[in-house]
């Protein structure tokens, strides 16, 4: 059985060791596996090469369309596990795209990884619309849940599914990360926090941006908002260090 991964260059899977750049694990050495496919389409998505292939007309501000063969790669689950085990970090971050779309295959890969090298901390980044596969869920230590706000361009009935948000809010493994582009986005975040009783210590606000200059500009007012409302702030460390590039 196989997993469908994104690529750094044609034929090379986006599987690499780096520092986690966002959220509750910022700064921790981690191995990243980026999977392909997504059920949403964010206008500002910085990994559109995982979903906006030629013929996909869902809106994106860059209007770029990616050739599928050059940007996707199928690898055997055992192969992925062995590649992860060969890298130094003992923390695995599975990202996308939307990784939970491949939940069953991920469960088999994580089980294979545990057999090769036990003790990995398993972290999954998700948009929060897909339930973890029943075989995968007990293997995961941390979920980084990033529900999409109106400015993402996704309809709320697709991006904010009440039953899923309620389950995530009740799960202590789930940390929420909201991408904020302007101060007015806070009203939507606070409404969701109140509706689902999301604890402030598990709720991060992150500036939207793909350059260090934009992130720094937005961080100034976003940090003040976090202080005022008892929420956590997260930057995008990898953008400041390496820019908006694959494999970082």
UniProtKB/TrEMBL annotation:
Residues 25-244 form the Radical SAM core domain. Its cofactor is [4Fe-4S] cluster; Mg(2+); S-adenosyl-L-methionine. CDD domains: Radical_SAM. InterPro entries: 7-CO-7-deazaguanine_synth-like, Aldolase_TIM, rSAM, rSAM_sf. Mg(2+) binds at residue 47. Pfam families: Radical_SAM. It is an enzyme of class 4 (lyase). Pathway: Purine metabolism; 7-cyano-7-deazaguanine biosynthesis. It catalyses: 6-carboxy-5,6,7,8-tetrahydropterin + H(+) = 7-carboxy-7-carbaguanine + NH4(+). Homodimer. This is 7-carboxy-7-deazaguanine synthase.
